[in-house]
Write a structure and sequence with these properties.
Layout (H helix, E strand, L loop, with lengths): L7 H21 L3 H32 L4 E6 L4 E4 L1 H7 L3 H4 L4 H4 L7 H11 L5 E7 L5 E12 L5 E10 L1 H23 L3 E5 L5 E4 L3 H5 L3 H4 L10 H13 L6 E9 L5 E12 L5 E10 L1 H23 L3 E5 L5 E4 L3 H5 L3 H4 L13 H14 L3 E8 L5 E12 L5 E10 L1 H23 L5 E3 L5 E4 L2 H6 L3 H4 L10 H6 L16 E10 L2 E10 L4
Antiparallel strand pairs: 1-2, 1-5, 3-4, 4-5, 6-7, 6-10, 8-9, 9-10, 11-12, 11-15, 13-14, 14-15, 16-17, 18-19
Helix pairs in contact: 1-2
């Protein structure tokens, strides 16, 4: 708030009225001296009232402006200040009236008090200066002042009047702008992407320094050049079409193209284009962001080639491979499943792999999967799975688990191989062995099978009936142990009961005496060499 209402605000009209009454009274009473004196007083009062009213109008005008106004006497004491200054600093007029301006408002380090006293002594004043003022809360505000000497009615210097503008917000905004510019400059210097700014004729007005490592051009080499000079004819046509099709509503586009640097190196670039339009829809240019995606493009190509090779491999493999989620649902299956189980791969995606087991087997299969997962080991099974046509197919499966970094299973890989032919061959072999065993069990003659060192590997059960020796007692022993010393030497044993070389003739019929505990037994037999 400003100064409270002065006593002269109501005293001036009273004094003027009294002076006018004295003039009239003196004239009526013919007291010409009194009347003349009262008239002179009235004239002076009217002049002085006009001066004071002008000052009041000036003060009132400054009261309503967002400008700081202060009037000081020669000692720097506050004679007047406007409401805006008081509101800005947090003081009231009674608290500042008559106080020294420099002690109350100006920080000591500004050094303005001594300068003011010097100027008052010289009756001069700086027309303009800038300094900080301190508010009641201690905050510093930056103010630009315009100063003038204050004089009395006789022209004597009685102090100074200053009008100031608070530029704190402006300075802070400027500091923020400069800080933002510094940050933006640092970003522009370090960013790897290229940013181009063009005019309506697509001439380059600005480009970031990253243009040199990406495009092989220094920014100063491109300023003023047309964007089209950097493109081949086909790319020029594409870019011109983008410009023709751009509208204020549809003003963005993207493109990927092959670019040859001045040094001949070819790079793959990706451009994000923002076409600029005025408020009236006139084309004004473009902002183009360019990114070098050569490595990304090459990685994509490598992935595509790898996927193609994997697809060809999956299409040619006979084994079935399934990718399962942690719940056992099929995420992927190789096309070979069509030949093995009769299903198209698309029919199985999303189904549970456990659907191919009989319902009564689900419990032990799930338990086996759980044990394998907890033991971190693969699970191998041989099982007759259901074919799509209802038949049974023998499959050998192996289930492996894929774990994340925390050791949690995130996927299962199931490999399956058809073993129907092998199982059928094994079954046929089992039947043949059973039949052969039945034949050999019924034989009266002894059939003996040895290796190249005459070690008995098999002998028919009939040996027990003939010799009284159990077949298992002879397996692993030398066949020459069944002969006496003379027969052993004759047939290559090299001594009584010792093993040795076998006969080199493919087949021979002999009569020999077999040594059986308790009594000798003459046998007629045949020796047959099995070629290796």
């Amino acid at each position: 708030m400003s100064k409270s209402k002065r006593p002269l605000d109501w005293a001036w009209p009273v004094v003027v009225l009294l002076a006018a009454s004295l003039v009239v009274w003196g004239a009526v009473a013919r007291l010409w001296g009194v009347s003349l004196a009262a008239l002179l007083l009235l004239v002076w009062l009217c002049w002085r009232w006009g001066v004071w009213a002008g000052e009041r109008r000036t003060e009132t005008w400054f009261e309503n402006l967002e400008l700081l106004m202060v009037r000081l006497d020669r000692e720097g004491r506050i004679v007047f200040c406007n409401r805006y200054l008081l509101e800005l600093t947090g003081w009231s007029w009674p608290q500042v009236a008559g106080r020294n301006w420099f002690e109350l408002f100006v920080p000591e380090e500004e050094g303005l008090r001594a300068l003011f006293e010097q100027q008052m002594a010289q009756e001069t004043i700086m027309p303009q200066h800038r300094n900080a003022i301190r508010t009641r809360s201690g905050e510093l505000r930056q103010v630009v002042w315009r100063n003038a000497l204050a004089r009395d009615a006789h022209g004597r210097v009685v102090g100074a009047t200053s009008i100031g503008q608070d530029i704190t917000a402006i300075e802070r905004a400027e500091e923020g702008r400069l800080r933002s510019e510094r940050i933006l400059h640092q970003i522009v210097e370090t960013v790897q992407d290229v940013v181009l700014l063009t005019d309506a004729e697509m001439r380059i007005q600005y480009t970031t320094p990253s243009m040199y490592p990406v495009g092989g051009w220094r920014p100063e080499e491109l300023e003023g050049r047309s964007v089209f000079t950097l493109l081949d004819p086909e790319q020029q046509r594409i870019f011109q079409r983008m410009i023709r099709e751009a509208t204020p509503q549809n003003h963005t586009n993207r493109a990927r193209f092959s670019y040859q640097r001045p040094d001949g190196q070819r790079r793959i670039l990706e451009a994000s284009i923002n076409f600029l339009f005025s408020a009236k829809g006139a084309f004004q240019g473009a902002v183009v962001g360019i990114r070098d995606v050569t490595e990304h493009y090459q990685a994509e190509q490598a992935v595509r080639e790898s996927e193609q090779r994997l697809r060809e491999l999956a299409n040619s493999m006979r084994d079935v491979v399934m990718m399962l989620d942690p719940k056992g649902l099929i995420e992927y299956v190789t096309p070979s499943v069509r030949a093995v189980l009769g299903y198209d791969p698309q029919e199985l995606v999303g189904r549970s792999a456990f659907d191919f087991f009989e319902p009564e087997d689900h419990s032990w299969v799930l338990e086996a999967v759980r044990a394998a997962r907890e033991g971190r080991r693969p699970l191998r099974l041989e099982y007759q799975h259901r074919h799509k046509d209802g038949s049974r197919v023998w499959l050998e499966t192996q289930l492996d688990f894929v774990y994340d970094l925390e050791g949690n299973p995130i996927r299962m890989v199931l490999g399956a191989r058809q073993i129907q032919d092998r199982r059928e061959a094994e079954e046929q072999l089992r039947k043949s062995e059973q039949m052969l065993r039945q034949v050999t069990d019924a034989m009266q003659d002894i059939v003996l099978l040895t290796d190249e060192n005459a070690i008995v590997r098999y002998i028919t059960p009939s040996v027990q009936k003939v010799t009284g020796i159990h077949p298992q007692a002879l397996v692993g022993r030398s066949a020459y142990e069944l002969l006496d010393a003379e027969q052993s030497r004759r047939w290559g044993g090299g001594g009584g009961g010792g093993g040795g070389r076998h006969t080199r003739k493919p087949y021979r019929t002999v009569e020999l005496c077999v040594c059986v505990p308790g009594w000798p037994r003459a046998l007629h037999g045949g020796l047959h060499q099995i070629p290796v």
